[in-house]
């Protein structure tokens, strides 16, 4: 596996004022380790993760299964091996007040959850404060917390700290965890833009 997926901490930054969804992942030494670009004007979401900004090596594909579906599932595929890593499925109506996603294994069995911190804060974000109250997500596998994805307060740019340090046994495939952060920045980010 590429070293880009071996860190316990990442910083995600979303490019401001871009016509396409562009994200950059940085390691703890602030070196770019992944570059993300969303294919625009597609009926289904098509997100590509590359090793660098030159797009010299495609690392992951994140593809929606359906065209427009409130409960859509996004398959995460290792581009080098053309192998499914897992799936992230948005819990449609339940995500109206508090974002919730299911984490599925390669056989589409639910193995975990990705959810916004608290229902009260989520409601405040949607009704009153918007981007003034940054989002915070927990990711669990089998009920055990394996990741924290925390948006930084910044009025001018979208930034997210990604922390896998509570998962020293690496139960969560980092590719799936980083795909989750990507979806939060692109899909959920559309709601707060």
Beta-strand portion reads 35-45%
Low-confidence spans = none
Largest sheet composition: 12 strands, antiparallel, barrel
Q: What class do helices, strands and sheet pairing give?
A: alpha+beta
Average predicted local confidence, pLDDT = 84
Quick one: how many beta strands?
Answer: 12
SSE order: EEEEEEEEEHEEEH
Distance between the termini: 34 Å
Name the helicity range: 10-25%
Count the helices. How many?
Answer: 2
Spatial sequence of strands, sheet with the most strands = 1-2-3-4-5-6-7-8-9-10-11-12
Seen as an oligomer or otherwise, the chain set is single chain
General shape: globular
Give the radius of gyration. Answer: 15 Å
Question: Which descriptors would you attach to this protein?
Answer:
single chain, 193 residues, alpha+beta, twelve-stranded antiparallel barrel, 2 helices, 12 strands
What does this structure look like?
Strands 1-2-3-4-5-6-7-8-9-10-11-12 form a twelve-stranded antiparallel barrel. The relative contact order is 0.17. 16% of the residues lie in helices and 39% in strands. The chain is of the alpha+beta class. The model has no long low-confidence stretch (mean pLDDT 84). It is globular and about 35 Å long. The protein is built from two helices and twelve strands.
């Amino acid at each position: 596996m590429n070293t880009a997926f071996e860190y316990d901490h990442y910083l995600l930054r979303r490019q401001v004022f871009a016509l396409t969804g562009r994200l950059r992942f940085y390691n703890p030494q602030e070196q770019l380790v992944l570059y993300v670009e969303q294919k625009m004007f597609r009926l289904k979401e098509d997100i590509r993760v590359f090793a660098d900004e030159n797009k010299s090596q495609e690392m992951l594909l994140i593809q929606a299964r359906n065209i427009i579906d409130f409960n859509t599932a996004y398959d995460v595929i290792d581009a080098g091996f053309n192998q499914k890593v897992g799936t992230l499925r948005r819990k449609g109506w339940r995500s109206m007040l508090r974002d919730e996603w299911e984490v599925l294994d390669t056989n589409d069995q639910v193995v975990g959850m990705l959810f916004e911190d608290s229902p009260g804060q989520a409601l405040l974000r949607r009704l009153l404060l918007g981007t003034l109250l940054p989002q915070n997500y927990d990711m669990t596998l089998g009920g055990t917390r394996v990741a924290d994805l925390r948006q930084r307060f910044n009025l001018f740019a979208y930034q997210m700290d990604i922390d896998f340090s509570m998962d020293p046994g690496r139960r969560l495939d980092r590719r799936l965890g980083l795909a989750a952060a990507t979806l939060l920045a692109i899909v959920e980010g559309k709601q707060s833009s």
